[in-house]
Amino acid sequence: MSDDTFDKGKARIDPVSGVPTTGHEWDGIEELNTPLPRWWVWTFWLTVIWGVGYTIAYPAWPTAGGGTQGLFAWNSRTQVASEVADLQTTRGPVLDKIKAAPLDMIESDPQLLAAARMVGKVAFATNCASCHGAGGQGARGYANLNDDDWIWGGKLADIRQTIEHGVRWDADKATHASAMPAFGRDGVLTPEQISIVADHVRTYAETPDSDAPTPEGEKLYAENCAACHGVEGKGNPEMGAPALYDQVWLYGSDKPSVVARIVNGGGAVMPAWKDRLDDTTIKALAVYVHSLGGGQ
Length: 296
Fold this sequence. Notes:
By secondary structure, the protein is mostly helical. The protein is built from 11 helices and 2 strands, in the order ββααααααααααα.
């Protein structure tokens, strides 16, 4: 660039925009000295002042004792605690009625039933929906709570027992503990025998591609399965043995899925909630689950 248009190291007026330059030039490109709009500068400083004031008014600065409390002595923890206390005060009379009422009497009282379902619905969404689904519809490996097929019993008392003590939850001595043997993994049955039993089991539910029962399948089933699932495959809630004659399959009804269950045995695990939820919430939760449509 010629000396008559630019003096190195000195600011000049840009002939196109009429704005002074900063004197900085790189590869023929000059930097214009364009100041920020005053409204932007004032807004910036106002936010700085606001930020400083906020740290003074509310808890913000760490100290050796934990942190400043602020001029208003407010924090979100105390706010939540206050809201919870207010909610408990509002719900208190109804919750006391639920707590005092026998479990089987709650459903006969419309007011108590409505209150129990409200409390139970919230508890279900918080603690149960992640496995059983928001509407209790279940998923593969997680029981559907809307139908009338109950592995451990669907009466109110049964549901409460299951919620309180869980299923195969080792930390609770009263949990439902029985499990299906691993007939294949432990070498109780050969792969061929397992295939025959799987075919026979699928005939109970009359799956579309199932074969007719065979004498060998009936014999193997009677010797290894009938003691838990029943001679006719109707199941046994006391042992947690599901019914095999209906169309409800927790792990799938196709042959590979049935074979996998016979080979590996075991069963699903559910936490015991008696140490996590209070008795009133468990009662309300039992009523809510029972009222989803499949309770016995």
